[in-house]
Amino acid sequence: MTHSTLGKHHLEPQWQAHSSLARHGATPALLDWLLDPGSLTARLLANCQGAFRVLLRYQGWQRAMLNEAQALGMRPHERCFVREVHLLCEERPWVFARTVIPVRTLTGPRRQLARLGGKPLGAFLFADPRVQRSAIEVAALEPAQPLFQRAVAPLAHAPATIWGRRSAFYLSGHPLLVSEIFLPEIGYSKPITTSDPQQT
């Protein structure tokens, strides 16, 4: 599967506002993860008892998916910087995350976003107190979709459906798009409250 296949519109997730989730079969425990406005990194760290790390799968230049370009106000198939990682708990993949960064965002100190490697993205995003976040959108991903296949690649047995969320972050008005796909290994466990909302 090549990165160029990600641009096919009929194989992209159908992202939507969370108000219509109930009629699409998401469980309450799953919704708790999808709609949690707090720090995903902090919550994973709490659930993993510290046995958490970021595994870099890909970073480089490629065309945005059509829905990503639309969300970021880009031209269809415009090239952008993409970073894909799995978030591991005790070496088990719990979340697949894809970050899409337009060229216009990678200026000044934001150039560091292209050099994160295995570092958590949130450490950079929330270093600027002016950062803003859009409303959360969600989607159910199916096996025919390339994004589904990339998310479940390390799993021995892929589920029939997985769920994800996405939102745009604005750093001094410069956008980037973060999609987080929740994998069955996460267990959709009971929420753990953290006191630090400044990570993601």
Description:
With 200 residues, this protein is an alpha+beta fold. It has one domain: Chorismate lyase, CATH 3.40.1410. The chain is built from five helices and eight strands, in the order βααβαββαββαββ. The protein has helices at 28-34, 40-48, 66-72, 122-125, 146-152, and strands at 16-17, 52-63, 79-89, 92-101, 132-133, 137-141, 162-171, 174-182. Strands 1, 2, 3, 4, 5, 6, 7 and 8 form an eight-stranded antiparallel beta sheet that branches. A hairpin with a 2-residue loop joins strand 7 and strand 8 (174-182). It starts with 15 loop residues before the first strand and ends in an 18-residue tail after the last strand. Residues 1-5 and 189-200 have low confidence and may be disordered.
What kind of assembly state do the chains in view correspond to? single chain
Q: Let me know the largest β-sheet.
A: 8 strands, antiparallel
Q: How would you sum up the global shape?
A: globular
Task: Report the portion of residues in β strands.
Answer: 25-35%
The CATH class is Alpha Beta
